[in-house]
Amino acid sequence: SSTAEFDVRPGGEVHSFSRSLGDYSCSFTYSAQGGTNEQWQMTVGVSEDSGLFSCSIWRPQGKSYLFFTQFKAEVKGAKIEHAMAYSQAAAGALNDIPLKQEEFGVTETTVSHREGKFRFELSKLMIVAKTPRDEL
Question: Taking the model in full, what pTM does it have?
Answer without folding.
Answer: 0.95
